[in-house]
């Protein structure tokens, strides 16, 4: 089964799927999501918390690898 199948099931069930910045995933450039720093899959209630936490975690990760 393709990702689109699971994406449809998740969104129909009230789930939310975005990139790490909160933008909708853009599949128009092909099957690879090279520019994304991650994909968030959660529910409506937790999305604001995750959208705040993910950039902070990415910043900490990039700082610790320098």
TrEMBL record:
Q: Which domain of life is it from?
A: Eukaryota
Signal sequence, start to end: 1-15
- Cofactor annotation: Mg(2+)
Q: Which Gene3D superfamilies match?
A: 3.40.190.80
* Family classification: Belongs to the inositol monophosphatase superfamily.
Q: Which PANTHER family would you find in this protein's record?
A: 3'(2'),5'-BISPHOSPHATE NUCLEOTIDASE, PHOSPHATASE
This one is known as Inositol monophosphatase
Per the UniProt entry, what species is this protein from, by scientific name? Cucumis sativus (Cucumber)
């Amino acid at each position: 089964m393709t990702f689109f199948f699971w994406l449809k099931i998740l969104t129909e069930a009230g789930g939310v799927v975005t990139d790490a910045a909160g933008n909708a995933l853009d599949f128009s450039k092909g099957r690879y999501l090279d520019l994304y720093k991650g994909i968030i899959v959660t529910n409506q209630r937790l999305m604001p918390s995750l959208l705040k936490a993910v950039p902070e975690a990415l910043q900490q990760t990039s700082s610790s690898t320098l």
